[in-house]
Write a structure and sequence with these properties.
Layout lengths: L9 E9 L4 H11 L1 H4 L4 E8 L6 E8 L2 H8 L2 H10 L3 E10 L7 H6 L4
Antiparallel strand pairs: 1-3, 1-4, 2-3
Length: 116
């Protein structure tokens, strides 16, 4: 099996811990404002995931062409507005940043197209 080394990707993972009972409102708000991120020219895509183990915990992963362009967005007025709309739902959370080193596509992704 060969390792595919992708073009450099800067990945951001956010953990959202929500106030009880706010899941549906959070999901709808996230969907309604997601284009602020996906329409940024340096954004490669983003995903919202709900924890299968912890109630009221969500993760957001977004991929960027590089760290500098992400940081540019992170300090923009658009990001502040985006963050402000999600803040009322949160009771806690964290941010992790990373560089994708290797990408090993699974068989299903290879045959069905890239569905990351």
């Amino acid at each position: 099996m060969s390792t595919t080394t992708p073009a450099p990707v800067f990945r951001v993972m956010l953990r959202f811990e929500l106030h009880p009972g706010m899941d549906e409102g959070f999901e709808q708000t996230w969907l309604s404002i997601g284009s602020v991120i996906t329409e940024h020219p340096a954004n490669l895509g983003q995903w919202l995931m709900r924890s299968a183990e912890e109630e009221g915990v969500y993760y957001v992963i977004s991929d960027w062409v590089d760290e500098a362009r992400f940081r540019e967005f992170e300090h923009s007025d658009a990001h502040v507005t985006h963050r402000t709309k999600l803040h009322p739902f949160r009771r806690g959370g964290a941010m992790s940043i990373m560089h994708v080193v290797h990408d090993l596509p699974g068989r299903a992704r290879a045959t069905a197209g890239d569905a990351r």
